[in-house]
UniProtKB/TrEMBL annotation:
<dbReference type="Pfam" id="PF00196">
    <property type="entry name" value="GerE"/>
</dbReference>
<feature type="domain" description="Response regulatory">
    <location>
        <begin position="1"/>
        <end position="110"/>
    </location>
</feature>
<dbReference type="InterPro" id="IPR000792">
    <property type="entry name" value="Tscrpt_reg_LuxR_C"/>
</dbReference>
<feature type="modified residue" description="4-aspartylphosphate">
    <location>
        <position position="45"/>
    </location>
</feature>
<keyword id="KW-0238">DNA-binding</keyword>
<dbReference type="InterPro" id="IPR039420">
    <property type="entry name" value="WalR-like"/>
</dbReference>
<dbReference type="Pfam" id="PF00072">
    <property type="entry name" value="Response_reg"/>
</dbReference>
<dbReference type="InterPro" id="IPR016032">
    <property type="entry name" value="Sig_transdc_resp-reg_C-effctor"/>
</dbReference>
<dbReference type="InterPro" id="IPR011006">
    <property type="entry name" value="CheY-like_superfamily"/>
</dbReference>
<protein>
    <submittedName>
        <fullName>Two-component system response regulator DesR</fullName>
    </submittedName>
</protein>
<dbReference type="InterPro" id="IPR001789">
    <property type="entry name" value="Sig_transdc_resp-reg_receiver"/>
</dbReference>
<feature type="domain" description="HTH luxR-type">
    <location>
        <begin position="124"/>
        <end position="190"/>
    </location>
</feature>
<keyword id="KW-0597">Phosphoprotein</keyword>
Length: 192
C-alpha cells in the first residue's frame, strides 16, 4: 500500500501543473487532511485501512463540497463504479492506468469534469442493478468481515433473528447456494 501511494505521488510530482499537498495512509485521515491542506482534488484508494475510500469520498462531498474526488481502484467491476457514482465521486480510474491517464484525470476532475474509465463505464451500462437493499448490503458486508450472527446483530442494532432473516433473503435474492456464495457473488459484482 505504501509503495503504491509513494509511486503515485512520485508520478504526479513529475507533472509541472500538479502539486501534491498531502498524503495519508488511512481512510480515517482523509477528511482532516483535505480540510487542512485545502486540496482541490482528493485522490482516494477505494480499499483503505480504517474507513474505506467511498465512505471518505462521501464525507468530503458532504462536508467539503468544493473538494473534488477521484477514486483509484484495482476493483474494475461495474458494481464498484455504480457505488462510487452513488457516493458522488467526480472521477473513477483503475490503478493500473498509465501515468498520463492519471494526470489527465486529475486535471479533468480539477476542471469540473467527470472522469470515468471508458471501458468500465460501458460495462456498467450493461449490468444489472444490485437487488439488495442498503440494509441487506450492510448485513452482508458485516458477515463478509467474518462476524457471526450475534456480532452482526450488535453492530447493526438488530436482533439475531432479524439478521438470520436478512441473510436468508440475501441468499434467495442472489440465487446463491449459501452465505459464502452470496458474499462471493456480491464481491464479484462490486456490491460490497
Amino acid at each position: 500500500m505504501h509503495i503504491v501511494r509513494g509511486a503515485l505521488v512520485a508520478l504526479l510530482r513529475l507533472e509541472p501543473d500538479i502539486e501534491v499537498v498531502s498524503e495519508v495512509a488511512s481512510g480515517d485521515e482523509i477528511l482532516a487532511a483535505a480540510r487542512s491542506s485545502r486540496t482541490q482534488v482528493a485522490i482516494i484508494d477505494i480499499d483503505l485501512p480504517g474507513k474505506d475510500g467511498l465512505t471518505a469520498a462521501t464525507e468530503i462531498h458532504e462536508q467539503l463540497p468544493e473538494v473534488r474526488t477521484l477514486i483509484l481502484t484495482s476493483l474494475g467491476r461495474p458494481g464498484t463504479l455504480r457505488r462510487a457514482l452513488a457516493a458522488k465521486v467526480n472521477g473513477f480510474l483503475l490503478k493500473d492506468a498509465p501515468a498520463e491517464k492519471l494526470a489527465n484525470a486529475v486535471r479533468g476532475v480539477a476542471a469540473g469534469r467527470r472522469m470515468v474509465d471508458g471501458e468500465l463505464a460501458l460495462a456498467a451500462w450493461d449490468t444489472v442493478d444490485c437487488p439488495l437493499t442498503p440494509r441487506e448490503i450492510d448485513v452482508l458486508r458485516l458477515t463478509a468481515e467474518g462476524r457471526d450472527t450475534l456480532e452482526v446483530a450488535a453492530k447493526a442494532f438488530l436482533s439475531t433473528g432479524t439478521v438470520r432473516n436478512y441473510l436468508t433473503t440475501i441468499v434467495a435474492k442472489l440465487n446463491a447456494r449459501n452465505r459464502v456464495d452470496a458474499i462471493r457473488i456480491a464481491k464479484e459484482s462490486g456490491w460490497i
